[in-house]
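As agreed, record passed on underneath.
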Amino acid sequence: MDHANQNYNENDIVVLEGLEAVRKRPGMYIGSTGSRGLHHLVYEVVDNSIDEALAGYCTRIDVEILPGDIIRVRDNGRGIPVGIHPKMGISTVTVVFTILHAGGKFGGSGYKVSGGLHGVGASVVNALSEYLEVEVCNGEHKYFQRYERGTAVEELKIIGDTTATGTTVTFKPDGQIFEDLVYDYEILLTRLREQAFLNAGINIVLTDKRNEEDPREDHLCYEGGIRSFVEYIHSKKGLEALNQEVIYLSYAEDATTAEVALQYNDSYNEVVLSFANNINTVEGGTHEAGFKAALLRVFNEYGRKYNFLKEADKNLSGEDVREGLTAIVSVKLQDAQFEGQTKAKLGNTNMRKIVDTMVYEKLTAFFEENPSVARNIFEKALSAARAREAARKARELTRRKSALESTSLPGKLADCSERDPSKTEIYIVEGDSAGGSAKGGRDRHFQAILSMWGKMLNVEKSRLDKVYGNDKLTPVILALGCGIGSDFDITKLRYGKVIIMADADVDGSHIRTLLLTFFFRFMRPLIENGHVYIAQPPLFRVSRGKQLRYAFSEEERDMYIKELSGPDGKGKTEVQRYKGLGEMDSDQLWETTMDPARRTMLQVTMEDAMKADEIFTILMGDKVEPRREFIEKNAQYVKNLDV
């Protein structure tokens, strides 16, 4: 590795602006003040340690969740520079933690490549913490400084001598900022495992010390890098690989690297995950576009050359060549340009050409050298193309059938009168009794109701042609009006909000997962553009006389019981547990779940959909072992469910 400047010091830290706005508008910097933002704080600190690893100076990162949900991140990098900053006149450590946009990533020579949020990480975490303590070892001394709500409460001071180097950051998120202060071990583990795959050989250790009797620790180190990532996805989902080994392609020049690992499996679904400077670009971007374009070109040229594709055959489509593919695309570059505040899409145009050229040249060579592997994969793509053709015929049949009917909208749809999609919403409701309540309670002007009944098709084991003929999914496709798969056209969407409304029990959860997976696989732009929501019906009705409260959690239920029981606690309250939406009358359903002025809804993100897709594969796939593992691991969470 071409190391960055060995003498990383105060002159490499460039200052752009102050810190005031972060506490006022935290969402701008970490996305939200809910659970996602809380976990984001950890990623910001870890990203700084990863940058040290990318520069070649850090081999181990320890992340600990301490009692009280305090986080400690320790690395063995060079340690933040401790000298007086030439421009600011205060210690550089203080500058890094108290000045926004101060970091070694703004034209200083400290880093060639870095992730993080443009160097705002350390100061943002500090601003949003009740307190933060930093300890820096520079090979001679151990330095320490404490901050409270973003402000240093003491000067940086020497607290001892040491030959070690590295930085330790300990922080407690601020209860004045965050709605939720409890860290989820699994969420952190998933993200840190991702980082360990993307940075081959780095050693990340996650430890949970909140429960003394049952501490948990995971060591994450993958010498195989993104090859191991592909293998991990396949083993976790219980998928059989078609080709024996993961195909690995890479490119490196100056500070730019690109690597791709890919392997085909026995499923019909594609998983393409792309990363830029270790950040998951869930919305893709130039690197992912380059990969997909080159993959398609390689298949079609190879197919023509070796007569897999006859003269009369049409070219394969992108969907055909990506069926059953798991691929990781990871690029590292200077001056990465991300589109959108959440950094979900890479915008650097040169990256498309770099990845495209690399994949085209190296995958072509791989196919030439491994004809039997190429033939296997090609057979799968041809079979996908045949299924796509069958799907086209099924689709035309569906269209013709619906055109013959008096209306092309499904009979179970109670439509609204408003025609402007930006003002309309559709509730997809499971069960006829719930559908009846929803129809009676809605505002007919802008709310449509589509009742579904019975279990939907298991899309895990179905290709597009099966989806079109399915009597449970066809009404959804017809009602939304925008087609599916490669025919999807978001401009034809009939409702701006697509709301899944299911019971708050295991069956309801199953329906939600099925629908989310269906949207993720066949109508992905719906989720990417923020059109999909999950309704949040109440779990309990607490009443005393004419006083009435609806509770969405057990904690809320207990709070209302206390409130309605009166100061002496002797007032008799009645508690009703809603087992299903059908138990609510129309007025109650409107008041609690459908009235825009009072309801709570969750907007589904790509992250949520990917998670649903993964769970779905585990639970619905053919392999028993991953399913058993998942159920055993999650059985502890299935409690207090009145089913």
Remarks:
- The first strand starts at residue 60 and ends at 66.
- Confidence is low (pLDDT under 50) at residues 105-110, 400-407, 635-643.
- DSSP finds 20 helices and 25 strands in the chain.
